[in-house]
UniProtKB/TrEMBL annotation:
Organism: Rhodotorula diobovata
Lineage: Eukaryota, Fungi, Dikarya, Basidiomycota, Pucciniomycotina
GO cellular component: chromosome
Any GO MF annotation of the entry: methyltransferase activity
GO biological process, one term: methylation
Protein name: SET domain-containing protein
Gene3D superfamilies named among the record's database cross-references: SET domain
Length: 117
């Protein structure tokens, strides 16, 4: 069964909804009601997309990468990630993995992660 979110797919770039925890008659902060807010108008029939890894589109230059260096690092991250974490969203700036790495472990956070290092 599940709910509508099983039809929402992860993409690394250009996602159209973001989740926010909301509490309604709930005093336990570990039990939020997750509400999804649209970032822009979503047209009938358009796929609902969310990012599991970031709330911002990737901007390679912000991390000192060229676009090609980013793609190379994403391909390396994808190859090294557990199979269920690999991303194949097909976006130009795919991160290679769907989920957050531990803090400081994502390739775009490591100074030695550039150029496949
Ligand atoms: Zn991706």
């Amino acid at each position: 069964m599940g709910n509508w979110t099983r039809f929402a797919n992860h993409v690394c770039q250009g996602f159209n909804v973001v989740p926010r925890p909301v509490y309604v008659d709930e005093g336990d902060v570990s039990r939020p009601l997750w509400v999804y807010f649209a970032l822009r108008d979503i047209h009938p029939g358009e796929e609902i997309t969310i990012s599991y890894s970031s709330e911002h589109d990737p901007v390679p230059r912000d991390f000192g990468y060229s676009v090609q260096e980013w793609k190379d690092a994403a391909n390396k991250a994808r190859a090294e990630a557990p199979r269920g974490h690999r991303c194949y969203c097909g976006k130009a700036l795919c991160r290679g993995t769907m989920f957050n790495a531990p803090p400081g472990e994502a390739f775009w956070e490591k100074s030695d992660g550039r150029r496949g290092g």
